[in-house]
């Protein structure tokens, strides 16, 4: 027991000796830490900008890393933004300097004009004459660019008929966006314009061949006071037809003793106000299950005066067409001596549902004449191939089955509607 206690005492003594030198070591370690701590904090105090830059850079990269876009997409966006900013700055720079150059040129021109006016009294008059000459030459060139028309004239003395032949045209002006035209020729006599003829429309052709003949019944004694007008139009389905050019021939200057055939250059047409022919109110109703189309001619207003007394005897003719062929025709009663007739007359037609999309309803308002032929006041049509109000009215009727749909229609010249009916829809 004694020996064991001695051993335990020696072990404890050794442990104490081993622990005693170890105590000052942490003090020595702490001293350099106290000295080094201010040295470690010195660089941030001397370089705060570097620390902020690193902090902002790390923050920016972290934000980019959290974006749902890949890095190449972010780079592309940055490039596009830089290009737009560069273009804007370039445009502003160019605009500012361009204005200065223009103002300088204007000042130089004004100064030059003033000097010329001071030195030469008649300088301005000479400049004006030269300008007028140039404008005249420009107008002549424009007239030459309209094209030319070949026609023929003859007179049948036995039947009192003026025979006008429209043969062909060359080098017509291009009126459409594609650099072509859809020409046709309108033929009539001034000053009455009572009867007008039209050729067929030649699609996309600047050198069309017509070879069509038209006859005017007119006594030879009255022919001298007339002017024959040949107008070349560009047909347009969706807007008003454009006049390419015209030829006016005073009949008192033509020798009709023998047939004549010649070419003439087209001239600029004088712009005339569109003649108002009147309006007609029509109601349409279609029942798909029964295949029944009902057309009600309700009334008309502001019709053109056709009689000598300043009135007309109007009636309405309805023609039903399918694929360009007449199926049925009907007409209203005649209303005497009025320009604002009230009809309220209904007409029914049997049209199967599968054919309704190809049907055309042609409405013509006539002036009744006991002695001669009835003169057409105006015309309109609805259905297949129609545009504007005619298409709108037909579409509303089909969209509202079994319900009557009423609509006012503006009457157009008969020849314009006939030309629109001849051309197939695009």
UniProtKB/TrEMBL annotation:
GO biological process terms, semicolon-separated: calcium ion-regulated exocytosis of neurotransmitter; synaptic vesicle endocytosis
C2 domain residues: 145-264, 276-409
Subcellular location field: Cytoplasmic vesicle, Secretory vesicle, Chromaffin granule membrane; Cytoplasmic vesicle, Secretory vesicle, Synaptic vesicle membrane
Matches recorded under Gene3D superfamilies: C2 domain
Topology versus the membrane: Single-pass membrane protein
Principal location class: membrane
Protein keywords: Calcium, Cytoplasmic vesicle, Membrane, Metal-binding, Repeat, Synapse, Transmembrane, Transmembrane helix
Membrane-crossing segments per the record: 69-93
Stretches for region Disordered: 1-54, 104-144
InterPro entries on file: C2_dom (IPR000008), C2_domain_sf (IPR035892), Synaptotagmin (IPR001565)
Biased composition (Basic residues): 104-116
Lineage top rank: taxon: Eukaryota
Cofactor: Ca(2+)
GO molecular function, one term: SNARE binding
Gene Ontology cellular component annotations, sorted alphabetically: axon; chromaffin granule membrane; dense core granule; plasma membrane; synaptic vesicle membrane
Compositionally biased residues, Basic and acidic residues: 17-33, 125-144
Family stated for the protein in its record: Belongs to the synaptotagmin family.
Protein name per UniProt: C2 domain-containing protein
